């Protein structure tokens, strides 16, 4: 997989957005405009963490595989092997889903 | 409940706004425009706290179940299981109601 | 009293503005526009203080019952039990009146 | 005196501006517009000082009675017992006159 | 090579962008406008690192020869021996490709 | 002299600009517009230095009598005994002339 | 030389830009507009370094005589003995040329 070979730097987190619902439960296809913006994503790679003034690394707060909630705006789209991913700063991720 | 499965990150606090009064004491229904903005909310989930430069966690100042007063602006709406919640930074919550 | 049950967070201070003079010494009622903005207030509740980077609390510099001078702008109006109060950051209060 | 009963908070300094020259040496009255802005003032009350991140107080650099030079802009006008005073941050006062 | 003789200062990283695809797999030449912006680059020189408040050097997080992903905007173009290079702050580089 | 009685506060430096050349070497008077802005000045008084977060004073880097180069913009004009002086922050002075 | 007598303050670096090519290799004079902006310069004087919060001096990273690469914008032009020099903050210099 693409993200295995890509290592974010510092406190950056690489995520893959969940696919939007394109068909209603009743089977009707939704035009792209009606599809809600997908804010849920899966963490696919994490940076080592930010470095403080003393040179110590502060690890990121999420792990590969965790499902997170993204803010509506922000993030940087990166294309790895023709697939869209997004980079977010660890501190910008709103929360994560736990069992 | 939805919020049990969602864990805010850092110093974020997930709250549920109290429902607005939609009927006057005399029984008259209020149009949506006449309903005051509800600034009181109940804390439903809290992040572990912000992380300082040395990597120590500073816990948030409110607890799940506490009733808080929100600022009029700010906060991020998040939809969990088709219900509206709001995320606020711990430092942006104005105060809490105690007995 | 309302403010007994409301606890400001961090370095916030809840104050109640003194009532404006609405009648001149000669007994003439002043229209609202002619009434000066009241900048004097009484402290009714104080937060525990701001938290520094090490997690230590720095207490606020005013106490409940003290009469303070507010800046002309700023502060957040909060309504508690249908009465108007104002929240100010401790550092924004200009000074206090002492005997 | 009014300022004896008013205590500025933190690093604020209460000053009283010197009165502007309203009459020329030749005895001609100056219209208000021709009077220069008075930037010299006398310190009438000082706050205890600013509080650093560790909670230590850093005293202000001027004392009651000292004659100081104010910046042209800034400062907050406060009215105490119907007399105008001005509050400046200690760090905004340009300098003081010494013998 | 030019970059051997140029030493970036502080936390700056000198990179050389990979050449854009100018011909499709089918052999058709692409006009410049259709060529995607190349965000992949090779590190050709790195600064010693940023200097913190105590004078200690915090080394950069990439090494000469590593393949990195650049942000879409930012960076400073520098021409060394008539060849284009780009300087980026270490913290602005999004990530690196590892085997 | 006026500046002997004025003490700048913190890291402020009081300077007197050198007089502009108003006559060419050939004896022709220059209109004010043709006179270059004088950026050279003599230090006439210095503050004790800025105060850091721990309350320690960091002395200024110039001494009374030294000839300095001022930035083109900035500084605060102060009039002492009907003579123009300028206050600059120590850190804004570009350099000094040494023998 | 002029720069021997001028000492930059703090982390400022005085540089002299290399002269632009005004004649092509073929001997044709270039109009000023066609001459590229010269970003290479020689360090002619350096300040003692910036002072951190504890009063310690952090020396600059370049030495007198070194050839450096300047950013396209920024810097302060200073005229010393009718010759143009430029002052740059040490941290704004992009890199240096080493053998």
From TrEMBL, chains A, B, C, D, E, F, G:
Gene Ontology cellular component terms for the protein in this record: mitochondrial matrix
Keywords in alphabetical order: Chaperone
PROSITE patterns xref list: CHAPERONINS_CPN10
UniProt superkingdom: Eukaryota
Cross-referenced InterPro entries: Chaperonin_GroES (IPR020818), Chaperonin_GroES_sf (IPR037124), Chaprnonin_Cpn10_CS (IPR018369), GroES-like_sf (IPR011032)
SMART domains: Cpn10
MF annotations from Gene Ontology: ATP binding; metal ion binding; protein folding chaperone; protein-folding chaperone binding; unfolded protein binding
CDD domains named in the record: cpn10 (cd00320)
A Pfam match: Cpn10
The protein's assembly and partners: Homoheptamer arranged in a ring structure. 2 heptameric Hsp10 rings interact with a Hsp60 tetradecamer in the structure of a back-to-back double heptameric ring to form the symmetrical football complex.
Protein family according to the UniProt entry: Belongs to the GroES chaperonin family.
Primary role: Co-chaperonin implicated in mitochondrial protein import and macromolecular assembly. Together with Hsp60, facilitates the correct folding of imported proteins. May also prevent misfolding and promote the refolding and proper assembly of unfolded polypeptides generated under stress conditions in the mitochondrial matrix. The functional units of these chaperonins consist of heptameric rings of the large subunit Hsp60, which function as a back-to-back double ring.
Stated name of the protein: 10 kDa heat shock protein, mitochondrial
């Amino acid at each position: 997989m693409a993200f295995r070979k890509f290592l974010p730097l510092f406190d950056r987190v690489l995520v893959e957005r969940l696919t939007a619902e394109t068909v209603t439960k009743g089977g009707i296809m939704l035009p792209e405009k009606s599809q809600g913006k997908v804010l849920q994503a899966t963490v696919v790679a994490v940076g080592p963490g930010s470095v403080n003034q003393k040179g110590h690394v502060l690890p990121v707060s999420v792990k590969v595989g965790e499902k997170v909630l993204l803010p509506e705006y922000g993030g940087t789209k990166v294309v790895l092997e023709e697939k869209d991913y997004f980079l977010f700063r660890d501190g910008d991720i709103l929360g994560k889903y736990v069992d």
